[in-house]
Specification:
- The protein is an alpha/beta fold.
- It folds into two domains: 7-100 and 193-270, Rossmann fold; 104-188, Putative mannosyl-3-phosphoglycerate phosphatase, domain 2 (Threonyl-tRNA Synthetase, Chain A, domain 2, 2-Layer Sandwich), CATH 3.30.980.20.
- The chain has ten helices and 13 strands.
- The chain has helices spanning 30-38, 51-61, 104-113, 129-136, 140-147, 161-173, 193-201, 220-223, 237-241, 256-265; strands spanning 7-12, 43-46, 67-69, 74-78, 90-92, 95-99, 121-123, 152-157, 177-180, 185-188, 208-214, 228-233, 248-253.
- The strands form two sheets. Strands 5-6-4-3-2-1-11-12-13 form a nine-stranded mixed β-sheet, with helices on both faces. A four-stranded antiparallel β-sheet has the order 7-8-10-9, covered by helices on one side.
- Helix 4 crosses helix 5 (140-147).
Amino acid sequence: MNDGTLQWIVISDLDGTLLNHDTYSVNEAIDSIRVLQKNKIPVVFNTSKTYAETLAIRKQLDIHDPFIVENGSCIYLPVQQFTQMPDNAFLRDDYWAIMLGQSHQTISDILDTIDTPSSCYTRLSQCTVEQAINLTGLSHDTVSLAINREYSEPVIWHTDESGLTDFKAQLKLHDLLTLQGGRFLHILGKCDKGRSTQKLLGFYQQSVKSIILGDSANDTDMLSIADIPIIVNSPSNNDLLKTIIPVIQTTSCAPEGWSEAIHKALPDLFHI
């Protein structure tokens, strides 16, 4: 994968960034994705979604580039594009998998041992399909893919801020981190979207520059290392804007906002 030229890479969150926060619509961004593909610019998803959820979206959009799941917990590289097995990787389906976080079983075991009562929060992985639909707004078929976590646990917190502070402190003692996303507080190992993005970019042999798009606080770490950081307008922007000054901030929400951002970041591709 080394032709000695500069390689632009688009790295994007999904919920609220590419997919509409409420409807999960993506259609208005597809033409821009096709322009990027025509110009051989990878479209890499770095998302809180699971492996199965992300595979389904990549299939829907006919995208074949690397991807990162569960807030930086695991990187997946297509074997056909990255023929040499990376250090500490394992083969899963047609991908080299590089795990940076903790297993869901490890996280679950820790949650069972800490002092915070389980009544203080709702765990997505323990929801019924109907409960998860009410929490996420996802369809029946899609939500089952979201429930089956492998590297993280999204929770809805029910009690006061002091209780949440104590909960986070206990998790930290067990080397677990928390990230606030658009809907859920995500519990995961010592990883984040920034660290996983840096590691992924290192697998490209040529010089790379990154256009990174996000909309909520759990995108902070990857946006902070972008050559062109972009914030897509969404209801989750407030906390993110306290920490990131974007090069581009869209007026439209996803998916139109995603397309707006790509047009502004790479105007020559669209003959503007």
